[in-house]
């Protein structure tokens, strides 16, 4: 059986493998690493492309909100503005918005990692491709409190639209 990291393209782009290795090593025997476990100095080269998403989970699970706590400089350059404090539900992510929100919600609810490779036309003859690894974090080991996302964006004139995703289960995310 092939390694899931290869199926997700993580071996081809070691930046994703580096984040996965960092988070799984910080997690140890726990189900999830915590936000406090993530040492920015250990992943300094990745920081421009990092998102930290806080899961606001009131008593009513249908009222869950996803708020940007940190967006790296490259992420903010792509979006053309500061994203800190924004709710992801209020952002338009194009034709794949509902699928992206569903994936983020599943990461929050089920505590599983996710790899996404999607491209969509954002202007006539201009396509934006994103490759993103998302991993759950938990401050109390009872529920997911944050998501850490590592996203890389490409723009080109001829990329075909696509949406590919791969879910990473707990066994895969073990060191």
Q: What labels describe this entry?
A:
175 residues; alpha+beta; Beta-Lactamase; 6-stranded antiparallel beta sheet; disordered N terminus
Kindly describe this structure.
The chain is α+β, with helices and mostly antiparallel strands. The chain has a single domain, classed as PAS domain (Beta-Lactamase), CATH 3.30.450. It contains four helices and six strands. The chain has a six-stranded antiparallel beta sheet with strand order 2-1-5-4-3-6, sandwiched between helices. Strand 4 and strand 5 form a beta hairpin. The longest helix has 14 residues.
**In percent, how much strand structure appears in the residues?**
25-35%
- What is the level 1 CATH name? Alpha Beta
Pattern of helices and strands:
HHEEHHEEEE
Q: Any idea what the CATH superfamily is called? A: PAS domain
DSSP strand tally: 6
What structural class should be given to the helix and strand makeup?
alpha+beta
* Radius of gyration over all CA atoms, rounded: 16 Å
Largest sheet: 6 strands, antiparallel
The CATH topology annotation reads as: Beta-Lactamase
Give the termini distance in whole angstroms: 17 Å
CATH architecture call: 2-Layer Sandwich
The overall pLDDT, averaged over residues, is 86
- DSSP summary: helix tally: 4
- Give the proportion of residues in helices: 10-25%
Q: How many distinct domains? A: 1
Shape: globular
Strand order in space, largest sheet: 2-1-5-4-3-6
Organism: Dongia rigui
Protein name: PAS domain-containing protein
């Amino acid at each position: 059986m092939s390694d899931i990291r290869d199926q997700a393209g993580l071996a081809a782009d070691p930046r994703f493998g580096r984040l996965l290795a960092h988070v799984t090593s910080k997690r140890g025997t726990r189900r999830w690493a915590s936000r406090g476990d993530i040492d920015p100095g250990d992943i300094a080269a990745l920081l421009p492309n990092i998102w930290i998403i806080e899961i606001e989970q009131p008593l009513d699970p249908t009222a869950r909100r996803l708020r940007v706590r940190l967006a790296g400089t490259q992420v903010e350059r792509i979006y053309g503005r500061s994203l800190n404090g924004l709710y992801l539900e209020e952002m338009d992510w194009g034709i794949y918005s509902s699928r992206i929100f569903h994936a983020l919600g599943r990461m929050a609810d089920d505590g599983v990692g996710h790899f996404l490779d999607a491209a969509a036309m954002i202007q006539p003859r201009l396509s934006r491709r994103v490759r993103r690894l998302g991993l759950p974090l938990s401050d109390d080991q009872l529920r997911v409190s944050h998501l850490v996302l590592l996203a890389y964006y490409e723009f080109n004139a001829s990329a075909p639209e696509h949406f590919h995703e791969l879910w990473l289960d707990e066994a895969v995310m073990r060191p």
